[in-house]
Amino acid sequence: MSAIRRGLLVPSLATLIAFAMLLALGTWQLQRKVWKEELIGTLTRRLTAAPVALPPPGQWASLQRGRDEFTRVKFRAEYVSGKEAVVWATGSALRDDVKGPGVFVFTLARLASGETVAVNRGFVADQKPTGATARPAPSQGAVEITGLLRWPEPKAWELTSPYDKSAQLWFVRDHLAMAQESGWGQIA
After folding, report:
1. What are all long-range contacts of 113-116, with beta carbons under 8 Å and residues at least 24 apart?
2. DSSP 3-state assignment of 150?
3. pTM recorded for the entire structure
4. Of residues 138, 119, 130, 99, the one with CA closest to residue 179
């Protein structure tokens, strides 16, 4: 009888370890589900809210990603000629306007107070996108801009570099890195 018990010890331990792992994985999935539901609710509220005035430059340093990202804002600014960067995109299952390869066009916009903000002016389809991808010129003069507050996107682990200098093409949406690479100075 003791030989049978010893023979069952290893399979019993393996079963117990597997059960504990499955229990932990199930708990993690339930926690992740709650987090995603909260995120979807927050995004839905923020994306459907009426736009508010862009916070004044003195408050920019106190903005927080978790509290302020995806807040709809509006402001008047003038696009700065020649201050653009493009970010490569493959398409989106969630957006009807982004259905294949192309670029998002980021342009500097100067506020009446003199500060500059980086504005994503939208998507331009291109089968072989580069920094030379043809894109519409920004509007001239002061314009009313409505958009979302966004924070830089982290570089994915599989990317060796977030920017291809020879192609003048970004692979991550990081306006702060764009400003540093392009000599834009301080931007929001």
Report:
1. 113/56, 113/57, 115/57, 115/186, 115/187, 115/188, 116/80, 116/83, 116/184, 116/185, 116/186, 116/187, 116/188
2. coil
3. 0.78
4. 119
